[in-house]
Amino acid sequence: MLNQSGNTDLKSIINRFRYSKNSNISQPLKDNCRKFLNQLNVSQKIGFGYGIAISIAICGTISGIIVSNHYKSKARQKEQHAHEQVEIVRRLQASILQSRTHQQQFIPLVNQPKDLEDEYSHFLEHAATVRKTWSEIKSFVSHTNTKGEDHEAHTDGIPNLLQTYRGIPKAYFQEIRNILQKIDSSNLDSPEKIATAQKLLLDFTNSPLALKFDGISDDLTDLVKISDNHYLEAEEFINNTDQIQFWIAFISISLSTILAILFAYYISISISRPLKDLTHIAKEVTQKSNFDLQASINTADEVGVLATSFNQMIFKVKELLAEQINTNQKLESYNDNLEEKVEKRTQELIEKNFILEKTLRELKKTQGQLIQNEKMSSLGQLVAGIAHEINNPVNFIHGNLTYAHEYTQDLLRLVEIYQEEYPEPTTKVQEEVDSIDLDFLNEDLPKLLTSMKVGSLRIREIVKSLRNFSRLDESEYKQADIHEGIDNTLMILQNRLKVKPESSGIEIIKEYGKLPLVECYPGQLNQVFMNLISNAIDAFDEYEHEGKHENSAGLSTRDVKTTKSQIRISTQTLDSKSVTICIADNGPGIPGKIISRLFDPFFTTKEVGKGTGLGLAISHQIIVEKHHGKLECLSRLGEGTDFIIKIPITQVTTS
Fold first, then answer.
1. Does residue 408 contact residue 449 with C-beta atoms inside 8 Å?
2. Please, which residues have CB within 8 angstroms of residue 424's CB and are 6 or more apart in sequence?
3. CB contact at 8 A, 233 and 4
C-alpha cells in the first residue's frame, strides 16, 4: 500500500546511504532496492535499519580503539624507554659524583692510614658501580639501535658521550690506584713527606684527566634534561591518542544515530501511511455501510497482511449481515411462544431454587454439627486416655502413702526411744542431729505426708471427673446422675473460675433439688453443661475487660461493678415425668435482637478465632431433638441471663 510519495521518501533514504549523487545510480538499482524493502516485513525493516546503524557504530568504535591502542602502545614504549634512560643516566651521574667526592677526601686523610683505607674502600665500591653502569649504558644504546628510528631518537646524546669520554673512567681509576701505591702511609713520618703526598693528590685533583672525569657529570645533567623532555612528550602523545579514540567513537556513534533516526522516520512513514489509507476505508465502510469497498495492497509486510485480512473481514461481514437478516426473520416467528415458555421455566427455576436453598441450609447445619460432634468425640477419647494413664500411677502413690505414713511413725518413735535411752549421744551423732534439724523433721514430716495424701485425693477426683465427663456411650440412653455431670463439668472448668490477676474469680452457687436418675445421653448432656457455663464465663471475662466501654453486643456496661460475679445452678423435679436445670448468671445480659438468633448455626458475637457459632445451636439440638426437651433463654439487660433446660426423666423410644 505504498503510494508515490512513500516511494519518493524511500529513494531519498537509499540515496543518502550510498554516498553518491543521483546521477550515478541507475534506475534498475533503485527499483531493485525498493522491491527488496517492500518484500521485508516491519520487524525485518526495523532490524535491517538498526543493524546497519549499530554496525557502523560498532565498527567505528572498534576502529578507534584499534588505532588508539596502536599509537598508545608506541607511546608507552617511548615512555618506558625514556624512563629507563633517565634512570641509568642518573645512576651513572650519582656514582661519578660519589667517586669524585671520595677521591677528594684522600688529601686530608693522608696522615690517617685507617681512615684513608676506609675511604678508599668506599671509593672502590663507587668505581665498580661506575664501570658497571658504563657497561649498562653501552648495552642500552646497542639494544636501542636494533629497535628502529623511534628509539634511536631518545639516545642521540649518549653515543656522543660514550665516544667523547671513551677510556676516561678507566684511566681515572687507574691513575688513582697508581698514586696511592706511590704513597706509603706507613712511611709518612715527617711533615715534609705528608705535604709531598698531599701535593701529589692535589695536583691530580686539578689534572686534565680529573677535570675531564668531572665533565662526564656535567654532560650527564644535559642528558637527564633531554630524557625528561622525551618522557613528557610520550605522556602528551598518550593523551592525544585518547582524544583521537574519543573523536573516532563520537563520530561513529553520531553517524549511527543519524542513520537510526532516518530509518525510524522511513519505517514510521511506511507503516503510518498505509494505515491511514486503511483507516479511511474502514470509516467509509462503517459510515456508509458500503461493504463493497476494498483496501489496496502494495506491500508484503504486516501492513499488507492487515489490509488483506481487512478485505476478508469486510467480505465476511457482508455475508454475516445477510445471514442475520434471515435469522431475524426466523426469530420473529418464534418470539410469540418464547415469552410464555420463558415465564413458565422461570417459575420452575424459582421453586427449585427455593428447595435448593433449604437443602443447602440443612446441609450446612448438619456439616457444622458433624464437625462439632467429631471434635467432641476425639476430645472425649483423648481425655479418657489421659485420665486412664494418670489414674494408674496416682492409685499407686495413694496406696503407698498409708504405708509410708506408718513406716515414718515407726521410725520417729524409734528415734524418740533412742533419745530417751541415750540422752548423751556421741559427738558425730549430735552433729548429724543438728545438721538435719531433727526436731523440725519430727514435726514437719507427718504434715508433709498428710499434704501428699490430700493432693493425691484431689488428683483422683479430677481423674474421676474427666472420665465421667468424657463418656462416649452415645449409642443408647443410660440412667445418669445429673448432679454428677454438673459437678464433673465444674471440676474441669475450675481453673477458669478461680481468682486470677486479670480476673476477680466467679462464685458458683449450687441449689440442687432431689433428682432421680434420668435416662439420657450423659456425654451429650455434659457437653451442653460445658457450653452454657463456658458462655457465662466468657461473658464475665468480656465484661471485666471492657470496663465502662461498649461491649461486643452493643451494650453499655454498668459504671461500677458492686456485686461479685456469680453463676447459680439450680435443679428441681417439676413432676414425676420431667426435671429442670437452670444455669443463671448476674452478667450484663443479652439484647433481644441477639436472643432471637441465639440458637442459629454459625451465629456468634465473639471475635474471629474465639467462637464458631455452633455451641448453642448444637446444645439446642441435643436437648430438643435427642432428649425431647426444651432449652430456653431469659435475659435482662444489666442483670443477667438464665438458660433453662427441661428434659423428661424417661425417654420414649420410637421405631
1. yes
2. none
3. no
Name the H helices within 470-521: 482-492, 494-497
pTM of the model: 0.36
In whole angstroms, give the CA distance from residue 153 to residue 149. 6
β-bridge pairing 518-520 and 478-480: antiparallel
Q: Which three cell numbers stand for residue 75?
A: 607511546
Query: In sequence order, what DSSP letters do the residues of 254-307 get, joined into one string?
Result: HHHHHHHHHHHHHHHHHHHHHHHHHHHHHHHHHHH--TT-------SSHHHHHH
Show the cell assigned to 156.
Answer: 642521540
255 CB-contact burial (10 Å; exposed 0-12 / middle 13-18 / buried 19+): middle
HSE on the CB side for 364, CA within 13 Å?
12
> Which positions ≥6 away from 35 have C-beta within 8 Å?
none
- Residue 539 CA: distances (Å) to CA of 240, 244, 440: 91, 89, 49
| Spatial contact of 540 and 587, defined as CB atoms under 8 Å apart | yes
In eight-state DSSP terms, residue 639 is: T
pLDDT, tens digit (0-9, with 9 covering 90-100), for 180-217: 777 765 566 667 777 777 777 777 777 787 777 777 77
pLDDT for res 551: 46
Residue-wise pLDDT tens digits, 574-591: 888 899 999 999 988 888
Q: Which helix (H) or strand (E) holds 637?
A: none
Beta-carbon contacts of residue 233 (< 8 Å; ≥ 6 apart): 78
pLDDT in tens, 101-116: 777 777 777 777 787 7
Q: How far apart are CA 382 and CA 185, in angstroms?
A: 119
The pairing of beta strand 640-648 with beta strand 478-480: unpaired
* Separation CA 354–CA 164 (nearest Å): 127
Say whether pLDDT at 436 is over 90.
no
Q: Are the C-beta atoms of residues 536 and 616 closer than 8 Å to each other?
A: no
